[in-house]
Every structure is written in structure tokens, then in C-alpha cells.
Amino acid sequence: MQTKPFTSLRLTLLVVILLAATQAMSQTVRVRWERNTDFEKYQTYTWLDGTRVKDETSHRFIVEYVDGQLGINSVFKDENEPDLYAVYHASVEGTFEITGGYGSDWKGAEAVTANSHLAGTLVVDLVDAAENQLVWRGIATATVSDNPKKNRETIRKAVEKMFADFPP
Hints:
By secondary structure, this protein is of the alpha/beta class. It has a single domain (3-162), classed as Double Stranded RNA Binding Domain, CATH 3.30.160. The protein is built from 3 helices and 6 strands. It has a 6-stranded mixed sheet with strand order 1-6-5-4-2-3, with helices on one face.
């Protein structure tokens, strides 16, 4: 009887590891906002410095895509009298995923592989300029490629997903 809980625990751990590995490879986007905010009052914004991505090309893509999404939603740049501050924070860190392993009875083992990759996180904040309060945040995570064109597409998709239901 003791082997069943142990086997169940191993199976559960294997599922968790596989889900974590799958999650690491896919792009995820989450959006949060202050629920009592009237987003219709925001018509202008300006950029403030955040935590820039080190690659200048990726920085330009992030700003360009956020500018485009805000413009689509009738929020335009105005450095003199902004209603909102736009700020982004980006980070890239090395991580790895593990695949393969043993069956529930420790037989039928598959090759275990560990693949390293770069995981990128992009956070876009919109801050009420008058109140200096965060009112909206989009967070995207995805695998970063060695291919700049692929990264540009990843950034574009992430920003589009963030702003898909903007204003909330």
C-alpha cells in the first residue's frame, strides 16, 4: 500500500515538471488594472524611464509597438501635458527545461534532457500622471531567440495581446 502514494507523488511531480517545461516555451500575457478607473479620461501619455532592455533594437520595437497600440485606442503622445506615464521594464535570464524521465514504476525510462534558453519578461505600466498611481499593467513572458526577426515578432505579439482589451 505504501507504493501507491509514492507512485502517485512521482506521477504528479512528472506532470508538474512537464507543464513547467511547456510553460517556459510558450508566451504568456497577463493584464491587470485598477477596477474603479475611468480609462476614457486618458487621452495623452509620455514615456518615463524604466528598466530598459539592453538591446537597442528591441527597445525601439517595444516603444514602437506600445505607441501603436495606445494610438489605436486614441491615447496619443504629449510630453507637455500627459494624462498617463508609460513605463516598461524588461529582463532576460537564462533558464532550462527538463524533459523525459522514468515511468511510474521506474521502468521504461526515457532519456532525460535539459535544454537551456533565455526567458524574457516585459512589463508595461500605465500610471495616472495626476495621481502618480499605477492604473494598468501588462506582463508578458516568452522565450528569447538568437534571431532578431523572431524576437521582433514575439514583442509585437506580446504587446498586441496586452492591449487586446484596452481600455478595460
